[in-house]
Every structure is written in C-alpha cells, then in structure tokens.
Amino acid sequence: MTRRLLILALVVGLAGVLAGLAPGADPGRSDTTRVTIFGDSAATAMAYDPKARDIVGTGIDLRLEMAACRRLGDLSCPYDGVRPPNVIERATALGRELGPVVVVAVGYNDYEDNYEDNIEDALRVLSKAGVEHVLWLTLRAERQSWVRMNEMIAAAAKKHPEMTVLDWNGLARGKSGWTQPDGVHLTPTGAQGMATMINSALVTLGVATRAGARTRQLSIAARSLPKARVGRAYSTRLQALGGKAPYRWKRVGGTLAPGVTLTTAGILRGMPKKPGRYRIVLRVVDGAGAARTRAFVLGVSR
C-alpha cells in the first residue's frame, strides 16, 4: 500500500472511531443485540460514511472497533508512533462487552505464516467472552498471500460451527468504483456494499433488522415467564404483537434452564432438571425483518 493511501485510510479510521465508537454496555439490557465489528484500515470507510454506518447499524447495538495497522494476533504495525491493540488484545480487554456477535474484517497487515494460528487463538478468546457467532470477511485477493489467507479462513469455518464466512473477495470482485486504486481500501460505495453484506448476514442470524425495511410496530407481549418446577413438564408460548407474520424466535443471550428448549415458533418447553433462576435473552424477527429483544428470568423450583 502506498504511504498516501495508508495515511488517508488512517485519517478516515480515526474519524470513524471518534464519531462512532459505542460505549461499553450490557448487550442484554436493550431491545437490540450488541454486535462488535473489528476492522483494519480497509474497513474504516464504514465508520466514516454515514450511509454505510446506518446500513450496518440497522436494528443492532453497534460497536465499531476500527484501527489502521491493526493485526489479528501479532503486534500491530505502528502509525505516528502508536500501535493499536490487535484483535485478540482488544477482545480480551472488552470481554462480555463484545456482545454475542462479532464481525472480523482484519488481515491485510497480517503475516501469512501466523494467520492460521491467530484465527484459532482469536476464536478461543471470543468464545471465552461469550461470543456465539463470528462473521469473518475474506480479503480482497490482490496478493497471493491473501488468497492463501482466505483459504485459512474457509478451513477454520469448517472446524468451527460458530464461524460464518462472508465472501467479501467474491462480492467486491469486478465492482467498479468500490475500492481505491490499491484494490483494498474502500470508496463510499464500497463501504456501503460491505455494510449491506454484513447487515444481510445479521438479518439471517435473526439479530438485525434489514436495512431499508419499513419499520413496523412489532412488540413482545410477555414481560415475565411462568415459573417451572424440577421434574415437571413445562410449556409456555411466547407471543409477538404487530409486525408481519411469520415470526421467528431465538435465544440471543443468557442460559436456558437445563432440560428446557426454545422452538423457532416461540415455545419454551421441556422437563427442568435443576433449580435456579435462569436469565435468557430472547429475540423475535417478523416476516418484514423487524426485530425485538427482551430479557426474561425463568425461575425453577424443586
């Protein structure tokens, strides 16, 4: 990358971070799911471009962790005498503030020989922090090393069911005007394309609202759950109001009581095995892509 392009990307990245870094918060306390996006200078345009920010942040509690020169697990390269924390270091520091979903768009500054091991290390750190889904973007394959690193990303996803590959390389290939002359850093149009790809993946996961979808008055009727007892059959149906059928339910945080499961139709049922108070965060998505999230406590007595 030329020094001029790198400096431009750094300025863009710093502006995006200062404008849009979300403060740490408990992702289970709002009606949206916390999603943290890690990026190096190639992805900072999503933080800088207002339309891209709106697209990628639709229906979620967005935390942008963008830094030029950021690496995945190795010591990040310096800019103006400062080295940003790498992904593993920053994820370790944030812990539960990451939320249940993390997006990784990092690799252009990384060493090919270390990238495979760093992916494994990063996934372990994210799992320890309670992350349930990891969306990992491929690299624009402008160099042979990035082709091989994309193969490492695909191989890791085959071993880790929590990891989903988003093929940015395939999507951006041949898109005139999406990248700067270096083929890596994004124009505003490219930033919006990347943001749309991420938003679509988050909608598929059931944690985001589709960008551009008409907002509907979707709500969750229940504010508490019936109590349960160990060894006795338990069943209750959650009800969504408003919006557009069909409705799809899923757990996006917390822990279900052992022996109890949630169906996509919103039915909690099973035979509780252990007493306690189990906090769970449930999300419903309607047919138009609107979504609502609510935290519940299921009390199980003996």
What does this entry look like structurally?
The chain has 302 residues and is α/β, with parallel strands linked by helices. The chain is built from eight helices and 14 strands. The protein has two domains: 3-205, Rossmann fold (3-Layer(aba) Sandwich), CATH 3.40.50.1110; 219-301, Immunoglobulin-like, CATH 2.60.40. Helices cover 31% and strands 24% of the residues. The strands form four sheets. A five-stranded parallel beta sheet has the order 2-1-3-4-5. A four-stranded mixed beta sheet has the order 7-14-13-10, with no helix packed on it. The longest helix is centred in the first third of the chain and has 18 residues, at 3-20. The chain is globular.
Total helical segments: 8
- Assign the CATH topology of the largest domain: Rossmann fold
Strand content bin: 15-25%
Mass-distribution shape: globular
In total, the number of domains comes to 2
According to DSSP, the number of beta strands is 14
Structural class: alpha/beta
Instruction: Show unreliable segments.
Output: 1-30
CATH architecture assignment name of the largest domain:
3-Layer(aba) Sandwich
Task: Give the CATH class of the largest domain.
Answer: Alpha Beta
Cross-sheet strand order for the largest sheet: 2-1-3-4-5
Q: How many strands, which pairing sense, and closed or not: the largest β-sheet? A: 5 strands, parallel
Termini Cα gap: 64 Å
How does the SSE layout of this entry go?
Blueprint lengths: L2 H18 L12 E7 L5 H4 L1 H7 L3 E7 L20 H8 L6 E5 L6 H17 L4 E5 L6 H16 L3 E4 L1 H5 L15 H18 L13 E2 L7 E2 L4 E4 L2 E2 L6 E7 L5 E3 L4 E4 L5 E10 L5 E11 L1
Parallel strand pairs: 1-2, 1-3, 3-4, 4-5, 7-14
Antiparallel strand pairs: 6-9, 8-12, 10-13, 11-12, 13-14
Helix pairs in contact: 3-8, 4-5, 5-6
